Amino acid sequence: MNKVILIGNVGKEPDVKYYDADQAVAQFPLATTERGYVLQNGTRVPDRTDWHNIVMWRDLAKIAERYVHKGDKIYVEGRIRYRYYDDKKGQRRFIAEIYADNMELLTPKQASTTVQNNQAQDNTRTKIKADVDNDTLPF
Fold first, then answer.
1. By the 8 A CB rule, do 52 and 27 touch?
2. Cα–Cα distance between 6 and 14 in angstroms, integer?
3. pLDDT tens, 81-128?
4. Cβ pair 39, 85 in contact under 8 A
5. Which letter, b or e, does each residue of 74-89 get, where b requires 16 or more Cβ atoms within 10 Å of its Cβ?
6. Closest residue by Cα to residue 30 from 85, 98, 82
7. pTM to 2 decimals?
8. Residue 4 exposed, middle or buried by CB count within 10 Å (0-12, 13-18, 19+)
9. Cα–Cα distance between 13 and 26 in angstroms, integer?
C-alpha cells in the first residue's frame, strides 16, 4: 500500500500549468514540522522541518490554483512517487513527489482575509503618518 498523509504549510504559490483540453497540473512545496522536545537529561532536540513536493492534477489542481496560497495550512492525502532526470552536467537526479488525491484547506478564510486587511491598514497608517510628518503644523 502506498499512502501518504501530510499536514503542513504551503511554501509558495502553486505553479499551475494547463495542457490538453483544459486539464491542469499544480505543483508546490509543502513544509511539515516535527516539534522539538527536551530529553530527561536536559538535551534539547530542535524542531525538524521537511519539505515535500506536492503534485495535483485536473480539478484538484484548479482548486489549488484558486484557493491555495503561500503560508496556508493544508491537509494532503495521496501517494509517493519517485522519478529521475539527468541534470545539465549529465548527473542522474532523483526526486520524490506526493501525488495528491485529496486536499483540505485548514487555514480559515477569515484568517487570510484578516492578514491582507492588516497589511492594507498598515500601509494606510504609514501613508497618513508620512503626510502628517511632512506638514508643518503651526502649534
1. no
2. 17
3. 999 989 999 999 999 999 999 999 998 876 555 545 555 555 444 443
4. no
5. bebebeeeeeeeeeee
6. 98
7. 0.72
8. middle
9. 10
C-alpha cell at 54: 506536492
Cell of 120: 492594507
Of 58, 57, 115, 64, give the one whose Cα is nearest residue 81.
57
CB atoms within 10 A of CB 10: 22
Q: Which three cell numbers stand for residue 15?
A: 505553479
